[in-house]
Write a structure and sequence with these properties.
Number of domains: 1
Strand content: 15-25%
Largest sheet: 8 strands, mixed
Number of helices: 13
CATH architecture: 3-Layer(aba) Sandwich
Shape: globular
CATH class: Alpha Beta
Length: 319
């Protein structure tokens, strides 16, 4: 296991947001770099990034929220200034959800928080909110471009059995790159030597982003490679052996209509598993936190205000 990396200093290459407090949160052998800003008595919003990002993903979103809310971001295991486990099994969703709960317990032990997840951060959020006692820690969940893998697997299987091929095939085409990510070392060299050096330009091609809007951390190359373990640890089990999952936590599903990685059709029947679910659409590609930060922040703030968190006792949360 690689030890935690020191937090990078903001600089021209990263242009990280202003941070008013930093801390390290431990979940067993993993230390997570946590960054906080905003009023201490505001509703707490925890923003969770995906692959291959760090907390820098939220650079444009945080300033739009921190005046009225306490905003928490962190580098997930395997990324940025957090611990980089070496074993594939250390990246299973159960461990990632435990990381999220550890952060929540550290920053808001007496009051549930509002979670916003993007990409694998959203997949992680779905894992957490489907846990039986999730509502004691999570007041609401906003999901951006990251499905519940069990629900995705169940949806694909049900549609294939009934001969409804169009939706599953559309998502299969969009996710074809993940097959390459399953093969050890196959993607390592191109990710380190080309994609990490040209990531903003690639996102212009793939997602229609202005490269000037893209923010990355100085650990991008190593984060890209370490993060491949997320795909290897979780996708096959989620799609081939889906579990029965549901949540009563209020969920806002942000559908990015031009998302080329996660197709909106895969969310068709989520209300069956998340009865307290609402939908918001953005005319965005996959990386909405870069391209549409204002619209995303507005959607998050509106949802948070609708589901303000009641105070709970610390013993209730930890129990």
């Amino acid at each position: 296991m690689t030890p935690p990396r020191p937090a990078a200093e903001p600089g021209p290459a990263t242009e990280l947001r202003r941070v008013t407090e930093t801390r390290r949160v431990r979940n067993r052998s993993v230390e997570l770099a946590v960054f906080e800003s905003g009023p201490s008595d505001g509703e707490t919003i925890v923003l969770v990034h995906g692959w291959p990002d760090t907390h820098a993903l939220w650079t444009h979103v945080v300033p739009l929220l921190e005046e009225n809310y306490r905003v928490v971001t962190y580098d997930s295991r395997g990324a940025g200034a957090s611990t980089v486990p070496g074993r594939t099994e250390d990246y299973k969703l159960g461990h990632l959800a435990a990381d999220l709960f550890a952060v929540i317990d550290a920053v808001s032990p007496d009051r549930p928080v509002h979670v916003v997840g993007h990409d694998w951060g959203s997949v992680e959020g779905w894992e957490a909110v489907c846990e039986p006692d999730a509502a004691r820690r999570i007041a609401s969940f906003t999901s951006v471009s990251g499905p519940n893998l069990d629900l995705l697997g169940a949806w694909a299987r049900e549609n294939l059995v009934r001969g409804r091929l169009r939706g599953p095939l559309a998502q299969a085409v969009a996710s074809a790159y993940t097959v390459l990510f399953q093969v050890p070392r196959l993607a390592d060299i191109p990710l380190r030597t080309w994609f990490a050096k040209h990531w903003p330009a690639f996102l212009r091609f793939f997602d229609g982003l202005d490269p000037a809007d893209v923010r990355t951390g100085p650990t991008l190359a190593s984060d890209m490679v370490a993060g491949l373990q997320l795909y290897r640890a979780n996708i096959r089990d989620g799609l081939l052996r889906p579990r029965r999952r549901r949540t009563d936590v209020p969920v806002q599903l942000v559908l990015n209509l031009r998302d080329r990685a996660v197709r909106p059709v895969g969310y068709a029947d989520y209300e069956r598993y998340a009865p307290n679910l609402s939908r918001t659409t953005l005319r965005s590609g996959h990386w909405a936190p870069f391209s549409h930060p204002g619209e995303l922040a507005t959607a998050v703030a509106r949802f948070v205000d609708t589901h303000a968190a009641p105070a709970t006792s610390s013993s209730e949360v930890s129990g």
